Amino acid sequence: MKDLFDLSGRVALVTGGSKGIGRMIAEALVERGVRTYITARHADVCEATAKELSAQGECIAIGNDLGKEEGIVELAEAIKARETKLDILVNNAATGWHAPFDEFPMKGWDKTLNLNLKAPFFLTQQLAPLLRKAGSLEQPAKVINIASVDGLYTPGDEGYPYPASKAGLIHLTRKLAQDLAPDHIHVNTLAPGAFGSDMNPMARDAPEELGKHIPAGRVGLPEDIAGTVVYMASRAGDYLMGVTIALDGGFVYARKT
To answer: CA-to-CA distance for 185 and 5, rounded, in angstroms?
Structure first.
C-alpha cells in the first residue's frame, strides 16, 4: 500500500518558522524529505534555526518582515527565483497586542491585522502561480493557515485584535478554499491550543498547571503539531477542503464549563 503520509520531494514555505509552532511545523516537514523554506523577521534567528534543522534534511532561511507590503512581495519573489513550483504554503507568522479597552491603540490593531490576516491573503495571492504549477487532481497543492483556538471561543484577556484576526483567518480559509479549488489548491486551517512558545509562556513555563484545564490532561507537544500537519499536507489529507482542525486537546469542544 502506498504511504499516505509520504511528503518526500515536495517544496514548502513556513512563515514564522524560526521558533514556536512554526519551527515545530518546519521540523516535521524537513524530517520527511520536504525542501523547506522558513522566514522570520529576525534573520539571525531564522538562519540559526535553518542551520539546526538542516542536520535532518533541507531547510533554507529567508529573513523577512511580512507585516509590510514590500516584505510580502520580496518573499514571494525570493521563492519564485529559487523554485518553479510550491507544494505547501504554511501561513504561520503571527503577532498580538494587549492593552486595556479604553486605552487600546489603533497601531495595535494595524500591526496584528497586517501580519495575522492580510499577510496570509496577499502571500497566497503572490505565490498562487507556483501553487498552481504544483497542484493537480492526483496531488493538490496545500495552503495551511495557522489560526488559534482564540478564533473559536472568547478568550478572557485584553488582546482584542488577536482573536478577531484568527476568526477572520478561519473564514478567509473557507473563501480561499472555494476560489482556489478549481486550481487544485486545497486551503485549510489548523487552530492550535496550548503549545509552549513565546506567544504562550504559560504553556511553556507551567505546562502541568495549564494541563489541568485541558480535557486531554496536558498541553500540546511538538509531535501533536507534526502529526497533524503531515496529515493535512500529505495524501492522507487530500480530501480536506476549507476545514478548521482544532488541535487543542479538547479545550474548545470537550471542556466542561
So the answer is: 18
Facing residues of 60 across strands? 37
CB under 8 Å to 182, separation ≥6 — which residues?
none
With respect to residue 126, please indicate whether it lies within any of the assigned structural domains: yes
Sheet with 88-91, strands from edge to edge, namely 59-63, 35-40, 11-15, 88-91, 141-146, 185-192, 244-247
In a domain, 5, yes or no: no
User: Per the domain annotation, does 117 fall within a domain?
Assistant: yes
Domain of 203 in residue numbering reads as 11-247
Domain-located, residue 98: yes
* Tally of domains within the chain: 1
C-alpha cell at 149: 483556538
Per-residue model confidence as pLDDT tens digits over 194-244: 887 777 777 777 777 888 889 999 999 999 999 999 999 999 999 999 999
C-alpha cell at 117: 490576516
CATH code assigned at 146: 3.40.50.720
* Cβ(163)–Cβ(154) below 8 Å: yes
Q: What is the pTM of this model?
A: 0.95
Residue among 109, 43, 112 nearest 74 (CA): 43
240: helix, coil or strand? coil
* Residues belonging to the active site: 162
Q: What angle do CA 198, 58, 238 make, to 5 degrees?
A: 80
